[in-house]
Amino acid sequence: MSAPTPRPGRLVRSPAVLRDGQWWLVSEAGSIPATTPTFTSVLDGFAHAVAAADQAVDNLRARQNEPPASDTGGQQ
């Protein structure tokens, strides 16, 4: 299974926004591209971690909706 891909849009609780593969810092005053490789690699890493966490939550929710496995060692 491959790693989840970060979704375009605002990074949770931050001014960082991913648009067309480019990170931007956005505020009410305007926006500027994030171009420092070290900073953008940290943003990429965090975005991948958030995407993986979202996927794990989705998987847990899907499992909760599955019927329980039958118990083959039950009482007779």
Could you please describe the fold and organization of this structure?
The protein has 76 residues and is an alpha+beta fold. The chain has one helix spanning 37-64, and strands at residues 9-10, 16-19, 22-27, 30-33. Strands 1-2-3-4 form a four-stranded antiparallel β-sheet, with no helix packed on it. A hairpin with a 5-residue loop joins strand 1 and strand 2 (16-19). The protein is elongated.
Describe the structure in brief.
By secondary structure, the chain is α+β, with helices and mostly antiparallel strands.
Helicity range of the residues? 25-40%
* Rg calculated over all Cα atoms: 19 Å
The total of beta strands comes to: 4
Low-pLDDT ranges: none
Profile the largest sheet. 4 strands, antiparallel
Helix and strand succession? EEEEH
β content, as a range? 15-25%
Count of individual helical segments: 1
Which strand order spans the largest sheet, edge to edge or round the barrel?
A: 1-2-3-4
Structural class: alpha+beta
**Mean pLDDT score:** 85
Apparent shape? elongated
Distance separating the two termini: 41 Å
